[in-house]
Design a protein that fits this description.
The chain has five helices and two strands; from the N terminus they run ααααββα. The chain is mostly helical. Helix 1 runs antiparallel to helix 5. The protein has one domain (3-41, 75-158).
C-alpha cells in the first residue's frame, strides 16, 4: 500500500507519528549521551501475576523476549491488569479504543515520564493519540518541541 492510497487525514497522522518518533529518538539519544551508561543498584521488582498471565496467554514462547515477557511492579504507575482488570491480548478480552486512551491518561497522570499527545480525530471521530515514554528530561524537551511544532488547537492534520 502506498502513501497515496491512504486518506489525507490518515497521511497527516502518519507523518505526525513519524515526527514524534524522530523527536523522541533525537532527544533520548542526546540525554543518554550526557548521562552515560545506566546502572541499577537493585533489580527491579516484577508483578508476578501479570508476568505469569503474559506467559500463559502467549501461544508460542519463541516470540517472548526479555523486553515483553514480564511487567515491572510499581506502587504508583498502574499496570494494564490493575487498570483494566486483565492483560491485553488474553483470550476472551477485547480492549476498546476508549479504554486504551483512558489507560494512557492514567499513565500520564501517574508518571512524569509519560506524555500523551492528542494529534487529531479519526474518520470515526475518535481521538488519535501518540504516547511518549522517556526519562523526565527528555519528556520536558519533547513537550517543548512538540508543542512548538504541533500546537493542539490549530493542528494542521485537523484541517479538512
Amino acid at each position: 500500500m502506498s502513501l497515496s492510497s491512504i486518506r489525507p487525514r490518515a497521511q497527516r497522522a502518519a507523518i505526525v507519528l513519524a515526527v514524534v518518533a524522530i523527536l523522541v529518538d533525537r532527544f533520548a539519544g542526546h540525554v543518554h549521551a550526557q548521562a552515560g551508561p545506566r546502572t541499577t543498584a537493585t533489580p527491579q521488582k516484577l508483578d508476578e501475576d501479570y508476568t505469569a498471565r503474559i506467559k500463559k496467554a502467549t501461544p508460542d514462547a519463541r516470540i517472548l523476549t526479555e523486553l515483553v515477557d514480564h511487567m515491572p511492579a510499581s506502587a504508583t504507575v498502574p499496570s494494564p491488569l490493575k487498570f483494566l482488570g486483565y492483560v491485553p491480548g488474553e483470550p476472551g478480552h477485547m480492549t476498546y479504543h476508549a479504554d486504551i486512551v483512558r489507560y494512557y491518561e492514567a499513565l500520564e497522570k501517574a508518571s512524569p515520564r509519560v506524555k500523551l499527545f492528542r494529534i487529531g480525530k479519526s474518520e470515526e471521530g475518535r481521538d488519535m493519540v501518540a504516547l511518549a515514554i522517556a526519562d523526565e528530561a527528555t519528556i520536558k524537551q519533547l513537550d517543548n518541541s512538540f508543542g512548538r511544532f504541533f500546537p493542539d488547537r490549530d493542528a494542521p492534520w485537523n484541517a479538512d
